[in-house]
Every structure is written in structure tokens, then in C-alpha cells.
Specification:
Layout (H helix, E strand, L loop, with lengths): L3 H10 L24 E5 L9 H10 L4 E4 L15 H13 L3 E6 L15 H6 L3 E4 L4 H10 L4 E3 L11 H11 L6 E4 L4 E4 L2 E10 H7 L11 E8 L3 H13 L2 H4 L2 E8 L10 H10 L5 E3 L12 E3 L2 E5 L4 E4 L6
Parallel strand pairs: 1-2, 1-3, 3-4, 4-5, 8-9, 9-10, 10-11
Antiparallel strand pairs: 5-12, 6-14, 7-11, 8-13, 13-14
Helix pairs in contact: 7-8, 8-10
Length: about 325
């Protein structure tokens, strides 16, 4: 029987701290993309809107890649899902099982990937590693594959992201997905140093709403010994505070070796409120880890492509993130 003293001791250690997931000791790197490779384009979350589908196809083809559309990319359920859970999972699994498909990209985010995590064929990705890239709601899939398939994934643009995959955004994609050298050092000149220091760990993270929502589930995102990053959009500062507080209470932030806050776009609230950046800084300082804020990660046109599970080093004083190992072979 649990006594009140036992309960208080558990609370003192940090609720949920013992259950924080970790990455496998080593992850497999998928083969790099080459011109002409076939890429599966699917909608595992919300349905494409307006010209999303055409834009996504044009972006992928601009890299010299061949698009293969999922069967259900035009399906809609409940108004906010791109088809039923079974249909969306089936599109992913068909791409994962097809040896001619060398990457899987999402057309857009929205909501829905958490609903299909139990239905994905992680063994297929493990047998035939391929690139899986996305961000926002794709946070759930990216980290689940890294843990369960032991294959690196990529936090980067969805197909319909931004106006064009060109310029610096294109360079980030090419460096991460099409070259076998390590991505190397990424500078954040206008970043805000929250806490000084240098830390090394495996990259993990994504959209803050998903990171919080997955906490306490079998698909909680690893933070132990990681460089833990997050981004968000269209959330009021008090909601940002609540989600970071949840991660703090779960022991997630302290389990990380370093913390990297990306962009919080349109994160404003009604009435008197502290800015979202101030709220984020307050919560990260309390974690006692080297921390930077303002990285080009998130709902922005020119975002980094970060390999989930890759070893990296964060230097909060020099305002750099260095990816130390190749992410593709």
C-alpha cells in the first residue's frame, strides 16, 4: 500500500521522471535522396486545402524527385482529418512497404497523426530505412519512428510549406537529405541566450503542443540525454506556459542536456499578457540546462532541417548548433 510519505517522496523526485523514454543507443541512417528517386506524398493529419496538393507536388518535383501520391490524400473525415484513421495509416504503410519509395513527405500538418501511431508499420521502416520528413503535427510520427524503427527522421518542411522550396530553405533540405556529410554548424546570430553552457546529445523534439500531448503515453518523445527542441504557432502565452509547465512537471526538461526554442509565430493573447518569448525564457531558465531561443525552427519560411536522433552539440554562448554525424548514407 502506498503511504502518504511514499507519495510525497515520489513527488519530490519529480512525477513521471522514471518513465522518461530514451533513444536507442544507435540509430540507422536512411539512404540519401538522388535525382529521380520516388517520394511518397501523403496526408496523415488534416486534409489539403486550396492549392496545397499542387504546391506540394511542385516543391518535391523541383528537387528532381518523382512524386507518388497516397491513395487517400483527397479524402476527408470529420472535416479536419484527411480520411479515416485506417486510410491515413494505410497510405503511410503502403509507402513504407514499397521498396521503390525512398522518402515519405507529408503534404501538410494540422491534426491527426497521434490517432494513427498504433497502426503504423515500424518494422517496415526498420527493414527498409527511408527518409521521413515533416514538422508540426508530424512531430508524433517522426519521434515514434526514431524510437521504434531505430531510424533517423527529419524535422523539416511539409510539402505545401512556404511559397517555394528555394534559396536557403532549399539548401537546408539538400544538406540534410541529399549529402552524406554531416550538416555541420548552424549559426543563430539573432538568438537569445537563455542559459550559458555547452551540451551534447541526440536531437529530439518538435511542436510543443504535440510534445505535451504525448507526455505520459507510450509514444512520449525522448528527452533523456537529448538536445530537446520545440516550436509553436498561434498559441496564447498562458497556453505556452501551461505546456512547458507540463513538460517540467514530467521531468522532461531536466532530463535533456540542452534546450533549443525555435519560433513561436503568432503566439499572442487577448488582454494583458507577457510576451510568449518572455514566458518561454522563464520556463527554460528553471530547467538549469544550456538554452537558446529563436532558432529558425517551426512555422517559418526558412527553417532548418534537423535529423531526429542525430548526435549534435549546442553552444549557447556562441549561439550555434552543430550536427556532428551524417544523417543519411
Amino acid at each position: 500500500m502506498t503511504t502518504r510519505g511514499d507519495f510525497l517522496s515520489t513527488m519530490a523526485l519529480g512525477a513521471g521522471a522514471a518513465a522518461i523514454p530514451v533513444f536507442p543507443e544507435s540509430l540507422v541512417r536512411p539512404p540519401r535522396l538522388r535525382r529521380g528517386d520516388r517520394v511518397g506524398l501523403i496526408a496523415p493529419a488534416s486534409p489539403p486545402q486550396h492549392d496545397d496538393l499542387a504546391l506540394a507536388v511542385a516543391h518535391v518535383e523541383s528537387l528532381g524527385l518523382t512524386v507518388v501520391l497516397g491513395e487517400y490524400v483527397r479524402a476527408v473525415e470529420n472535416g479536419y482529418l484527411a480520411g479515416s484513421d485506417a486510410e491515413r495509416a494505410d497510405d503511410f504503410n503502403k509507402m513504407a512497404r514499397d521498396p521503390s519509395i525512398r522518402a515519405i513527405f507529408s503534404i501538410r500538418g494540422g491534426y491527426g497523426t497521434m490517432r494513427i501511431l498504433n497502426e503504423l508499420d515500424y518494422a517496415a521502416i526498420a527493414r527498409d530505412p527511408k527518409i521521413v520528413m515533416g514538422y508540426s503535427d508530424l512531430t508524433a510520427i517522426l519521434n515514434a519512428i526514431a524510437v521504434r524503427s531505430r531510424v533517423m527522421t527529419f524535422h523539416g518542411p511539409v510539402g505545401a510549406h512556404g511559397s517555394l522550396w528555394n534559396g536557403l530553405a532549399r539548401e537546408y533540405i539538400a544538406r540534410a537529405l541529399m549529402q552524406t556529410e554531416p550538416i555541420g554548424t548552424l549559426s543563430i546570430e539573432d538568438a537569445q541566450r537563455i542559459a550559458s553552457g555547452r551540451a551534447r546529445g541526440r536531437l529530439a523534439g518538435g511542436n510543443l503542443s504535440l510534445l505535451a500531448a504525448l507526455t505520459g503515453t507510450p509514444f512520449a518523445v525522448p528527452s533523456e540525454n537529448t538536445l530537446f527542441f520545440f516550436e509553436e504557432t498561434e498559441e496564447a502565452p498562458y497556453r505556452i506556459d501551461r505546456m512547458l509547465t507540463q513538460l517540467s512537471l514530467a521531468g522532461t526538461l531536466r532530463a535533456a542536456r540542452g534546450l533549443l526554442a525555435g519560433q513561436c509565430t503568432k503566439c499572442t493573447g487577448d488582454g494583458p499578457t507577457a510576451p510568449a518569448g518572455e514566458v518561454i525564457a522563464q520556463r527554460l531558465r528553471g530547467a538549469g540546462r544550456p538554452a537558446l531561443m529563436g532558432a529558425p525552427v517551426g512555422h517559418v519560411a526558412m527553417q532548418w532541417v534537423l535529423p531526429i536522433g542525430a548526435l549534435a552539440e549546442l553552444d549557447a554562448d556562441e549561439k550555434t548548433l552543430t550536427v556532428l554525424e551524417p544523417a543519411v548514407t
